[in-house]
Every structure is written in structure tokens, then in C-alpha cells.
């Protein structure tokens, strides 16, 4: 039990630091930013308490907001992602999720890709909708969501594959 808590604590801190120090300083073409901190929410253990995930997601987003001076949009988007996670897991993994036997290090790449893609799109659409908060800028919201999501999905899948031991 304590080794998994330690692993997730380290993952929380490392993703927070990488996001704040490196990823927040990437601003390709004015609207392409990777938000890799959401990997923590994606890889949080399925069997753990959902309230714990919601609280940790809020704290992670809040820390990102404090370092980015972004007024709570990351905290809100992180909580929305954490709240939507069970539906994403059921959609992506089906019966594996029903039987609580999803292991992110051994699942097939297609299911993982589906899970990461839908989750990233939900997170980013929420994030940019709250950040811009203007219905007349819907095209800008969609453009930022599409391009940042693409970059985040690629980087997230690469990180998950590189740091998992038992990939098929």
C-alpha cells in the first residue's frame, strides 16, 4: 500500500514540476501548449476512492493555477476530467473496467489511446472554454482545444509508454 502511495506522490510532484517549469513555457504558434499534468488523473488507481481522486485532481489543478496565475481554470478542468473518468474508463476498456482489472501498463495501445484522447479533449475543452469564456470566440476555443489536445495526447502516450515496464 505505501509503495503505491509513494509512486503516486512522486508522479504528482514530478508532473507538477515538469508542467510548471517546462511545459508552461512552451507556446508554439501562440496556442499549442502541452498539459501533461493530466497524466496523473489518467493513471490514478481505479480501485482507489473516487473522492480522493477528485480532491487530488483539484489540488493538482490548483497548484498549476497558482504557478500559472490562471485563476482556477486548471482546477476546474481537472475536476471535470476526474469526474468524467469512470465513463471514459468504461467506454475505453469495457469489461476490463467492469471487473476492476484495468492495468495501464499492460492494456492494448488502442484502448489506452481512446482513453487518453477523450479525456484530453474533455479537459482541454473545459479549460479553454473557461479561460476564454466568450461564446463569440468559439472558433478560437475549438482551435486551441484541437491543437493543444493533439500535442498533449502525443506527449502523454509517449510518456506512458516510456515509463511503463510491461507494454505489449
Provide an overview of this structure:
- With 168 residues, the chain is an all-alpha fold.
- It has one domain (2-162): Arp2/3 complex 21 kDa subunit ARPC3, CATH 1.10.1760.
- The chain is built from 7 helices and no strands.
- The two termini are 26 Å apart.
How much is the radius of gyration in Å?
15 Å
Shape: globular
Major β-sheet profile: none
How much helicity do the residues have?
over 70%
Classified by CATH, the class is Mainly Alpha
The number of helical runs is: 7
Identify low-pLDDT runs: none
The CATH architecture assignment turns out to be Orthogonal Bundle
Beta content: under 5%
Number of strands: 0
CATH topology: Arp2/3 complex 21 kDa subunit ARPC3
**How far is the first residue's CA from the last residue's CA?**
26 Å
Overall pLDDT level = 88
Query: How many independent structural domains?
Result: 1
Structural class: mainly alpha
SSE succession: HHHHHHH
Protein name: Rod shape-determining protein MreD
Transmembrane segments: 12-44, 51-68, 74-97, 109-133, 145-163
Keywords: Membrane, Transmembrane, Transmembrane helix
Descriptors:
70% helix; 7 helices; mainly alpha; 168 residues; Arp2/3 complex 21 kDa subunit ARPC3
Quick structural summary:
The chain is built from 7 helices and no strands. The chain has 168 residues and is mostly helical.
Question: What secondary-structure arrangement, pairings included, does this model have?
Answer:
Blueprint (H helix, E strand, L loop, with lengths): L1 H20 L17 H5 L6 H19 L4 H21 L1 H4 L10 H24 L5 H25 L6
Helix pairs in contact: 1-3, 3-4, 4-6, 6-7
